[in-house]
Design goal:
Layout lengths: L6 H25 L3 H12 L3 H17 L3 H18 L3 H4 L7 E3 L5 E7 L4 H16 L3 E7 L5 H15 L3 H11 L4 H10 L4 H8 L2 H16 L7 E4 L2 E4 L4 H10 L5
Parallel strand pairs: 2-3
Antiparallel strand pairs: 1-3, 2-4, 4-5
Helix pairs in contact: 1-2, 1-3, 6-12, 7-8, 7-10, 8-9
Length: 260
């Protein structure tokens, strides 16, 4: 039987080998495995003999050279699949805020999650984009997950932010802290006084198990979602990283079915 007589099998093989190649590359980067070993084993398990493999690889190579535009699409689909796997079991928790740590409509059905750090300049840049989205969409709930990774000052600011949330003053603290600049001890104290925090109650809160557990949980979520910087975003089943324009965040909400 010739290969021309087996179009369906060749088509399936094309898809198989493209995915295999990308999978082998991932194995190399993530685990340090030999790509030849992984590929050889997978091809053998799929039932292709040596001659079939040579012919299929020629077809795949020719197709990809003629249609390189499909590679970004394949990579994106793989990334989406990896994100779905990473979200498994934590999606609801990630979208559920620490009580009071919300911007916009606390009862909104449209949800944007931001992992942020008060020492992060890109997070500061993102405040305007988030504010613009909130202004345009009265149903938008922005869940802020305190993810302090840049300094001990970041950690202290995150604790005070959560203490402010317990007093119903999270939004005021969040905005004022970014307006103030770097989260030094003096800056945190200045912001706390300016927004009228009960300082004694806040000091008790920042030492509490609840605040400590929230920051630890956010770090665990970030690790599972492979966030290695801030800001990072969760929109439905999609994750994004970096300072994004309002239009980019709006597009992500639209794609997730949550657009306003």
């Amino acid at each position: 039987m010739t290969y021309a007589a087996k179009p369906l099998r060749i088509a399936a093989a094309v898809v198989f080998l493209v995915v295999l190649a990308l999978g082998a590359a991932w194995i190399v980067s993530a685990r340090g495995a030999e790509p030849e070993n992984a590929a050889d084993s997978a091809v053998r398990d799929a039932g292709f003999d040596a001659k079939e493999r040579v012919a299929i690889e020629a077809v795949v190579r020719d197709y990809l050279l003629k249609h390189p535009e499909i590679l970004p699409e394949i990579v994106e689909k793989l990334r989406e699949k990896e994100t779905l796997a990473a979200m498994d079991g934590i999606q609801e928790q990630v979208a559920t805020p620490f009580k009071g740590a919300v911007l916009g409509n606390p009862n909104g059905k449209t949800v944007l999650v931001e992992f942020s750090d008060y020492a992060c300049g890109y997070c500061r840049q993102s405040v305007a984009a988030v504010d613009a989205l909130i202004a345009e969409n009265p149903d938008l709930k922005v869940v802020i997950r305190e993810f302090p990774i840049l300094s001990q000052d970041s950690v202290e600011a995150a604790k005070w932010a959560l203490a402010a949330a317990e007093q119903g003053k999270y939004e005021a603290f969040h905005r004022a802290m970014y307006d103030e600049g770097r989260p030094t001890a003096d800056a945190i104290a200045k912001v706390g006084k300016a927004i009228g925090l009960d300082i004694a109650a806040a000091q008790k809160a920042i030492a509490s198990d609840a605040v400590r557990a929230e920051i630890e949980a956010n770090r665990a979520y970030a690790s599972q979602l492979q966030f290695d910087g801030t800001p990072a975003w969760v929109v439905g089943n999609t994750t994004l990283q970096g300072a994004l324009a309002k239009s980019q965040l709006a597009e992500a909400l639209e794609k997730s079915g949550q657009g306003g």
